Amino acid sequence: MRDTAKSIRFGSMIAASGGEAAPRIAQMADMGFESFEPFFWQTTNGQKNVELGKACLDAIGDRDITNSTLGVFGNPLETREMDLATLQASKDCIDNAHHFGATCVAASPAVFGAVPCPKACRATSRSGPNWPNARRTRA
């Protein structure tokens, strides 16, 4: 078993919905943070995540900093237009996490609408009904 006390990093969440993640990471990279989590509010706003991921890694440069996680806030479990956009943003993050150097995509569990929490947790797991082919081959 690994010693988690030696593997925990201090990080900051960085808004990415408007394309501001890379400049913000560059601005904060020398402030002592060891990890960043670029996150999206409901949608990626049509951004090219391959380029955004590369720009975020370029902002880190050769520092010992990671983008360990990408985040998506919103409700991917229902069928309203924004819910479907959030589902697509989640899938886009899963498909493109490696361009950011991320090994985890986190979703906001706070917004379930009419979906009970146990059902929502099952639905958002990799094998859940709303996540067909969630773990696709990376481009």
Q: Strand order across the biggest sheet?
A: 1-2-3-4
Q: Number of helical runs?
A: 4
User: What's the alpha carbon Rg, rounded to whole Å?
Assistant: 15 Å
Percent in helix: 25-40%
Q: What general form does the structure show?
A: globular
What structural category characterises the helix and strand content? alpha/beta
Strand content: 15-25%
Can you summarize the main beta sheet? 4 strands, parallel
Distance between the termini: 32 Å
Tell me, rounded to a whole number, the average pLDDT.
Answer: 80
Low-confidence parts lasting 5 or more residues at pLDDT below 50?
Answer: 127-139
The SSE string, one letter per element, is EHEHEHEH
* Total beta strand runs: 4
Number of domains: 1
Describe this structure in words.
With 139 residues, this protein is α/β, with parallel strands linked by helices. The chain has one domain. The chain is 34% helix and 15% strand. It is built from four helices and four strands, in the order βαβαβαβα. Strands 1-2-3-4 form a four-stranded parallel sheet, covered by helices on one side. Strand 2, helix 2 and strand 3 form a beta-alpha-beta unit. Helix 1 runs parallel beside helix 2. The radius of gyration is 15 Å and the shape is globular. The C terminus is likely disordered.
